[in-house]
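Fold this sequence, please.
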Amino acid sequence: MAKTTDFTNFGNERPNYFAGQYLLEDDFEIQHKYFSDRQRYHNQSLHISGIVEGLEVAVIQDTKSVQIKSGSAINTSGDLIILKENITFSDFKNLIDGVLYIQYAQDKQIQQQKDVPDSYTRWIEKPILGFATTIPENSVNLGKLTIAQNTITLDANVREYSGLSLPNSNSKALTLRSGGNATPNLAVLTGSLKIDGDLTVAGTISGTIDTKNITSGILNVERIPNLSTDKITSGTLNVDRIPNLSTDKITSGTLNVDRIPNLSANKITSGTIVGDLTVNGNITGKNLSLSADGSKRGVLFLASIGDYNHVLYNNLSNIDNEGVWDGAKWNVFNGLNIRVGSGSSKSTAFYINNNGNVAIGINNPGDYKLNVQGNQLLKGSLTIQEGRVNLDGSQQIVFSDNGTTNQLKLQLWSGYGLGINGSTLFYTASGNHSWRDSQNIERMLLSTAVDGGLTVKGTGSSSFAGNLTVTGSLSVGISVGSTTNIDLSGHIQLKEYGQQNIAFLQARDDSSNRNIGLRIRTQTQGSTQRTLVDAVTITPSGEIQGKIWYSDEYVWKNGQTDVKMGHSSKCVAFLTYMQGKFAGSGEQVFTYIGSDGYWYLGGKQGGGGADIVAKARCIGSPS
């Protein structure tokens, strides 16, 4: 359906004037509306939006402005926009790239009575000029401007010119307008053109208007005496109607060699040839099909006829006299080489030598039944019944990062192999995992049973760079009298046993049921060798023997402030040395616990004493 206009408020009445008539305000408004509605409807329906005349844009250099000349335009609402005089425009709003446009606008002016707000006597039409990145709705494009500093570049080829709008039944645009500033003398028709009468062209017809685009109707050579037959690409051609037909351009249809005795066969691309065809040159085309003719059944000889060492044929008639009707064959005498490429850059894609060995990517398979150069994609299973897979030492077997389930990636036996699940590489065995040397001597054994364990049979040292967590018992040197050591570079951390808020360090011997004590040793660096020192010994009955910690000596002299020592919760302080004159006149040396909980060493000198010095130590544990 064609687009329809809402005529509800369309003016369809006008005044009928007579002598002595008393005219009201409505009479003048009805007359104005009658003519304005029709003019706007005419502009909107039979014209298209754009410039009618003038409104040229010129750049004013060194002023960052443009001049817009007087002119007129029509917008999409059918309003006629009039610019009465030239205007200089510079309101670019800090944009550097945009469209210069003109819009219809009107405003009430000339107020007749100041006390009456709506007493304006004139509607003044004054268009709006603007510059924006995107042209506003219902405005007309005057040109595109690009601004770099104070330099303005004008692109006038985007200016829109008005034209004719041809009404039709499907609302699709059918318009005729100027080609714009780029081709001002060109009329551009949007849609098809049909001419019932004659067409006279005084100039040149350009484009693709030639006989190759005539796709229907009857062509009469008498009507078109200079018809270029090399452009006839379809239809039925009759040599009686076109006696001078250039046969080298016939590309389709049924050709009879009796009707066209001088047929140029190198241009026949399809159809049926009745009779024999002899080609002295090359056959060029997309497809070559040889049909069966009795016993031959589609034979293509690549050498002389009868040479079955160079022939491609369908052996359903035993034409090679081998006694077997064994389907399609391609016989070659000294290898089959299929090459791809162009010119001198051809390379071998597929090669079969006289021994039946196949090469892909090279022309020499060597002693291999299949020699493939390059990457291969194999979808399905690969079964090797005999032999083995040999890889160069620098090669890899790479699996893609897919299928991270508990399936084996490398299966060595049913239920035995290597797999991946997420970020975990696992080894699966229904029995034991065994590590052996080149002499098949077992060096380490891991049992997969529920109560299995790991047995290391080597006599060398083992190390762990990280943490070692043992959820069961850890036994080292389990035989009686063993001198096996546990070497630690850090510290031993004991955790709570049960819910007793106590950690246990336990010495025990369950096998011989003997009394066992616990001895803690330290090591000192002697002048010639390291020395082990017994630090603490705990007897089987629980008695502690060993050295007690005490601090270095603290020194206080008369006149100094008291000396701070260890905390009272960690140690006990005692005097170890006193010096000076004690004359019984109030001289004192003492240790005491301060308000901060620390021990202090101090004293005072009386009237008869002199040079009082005291020393003290703390015994217990380091503060």
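Residues 11 and 35 are 8 Å apart (CA to CA). Residues 397-457 form one domain.
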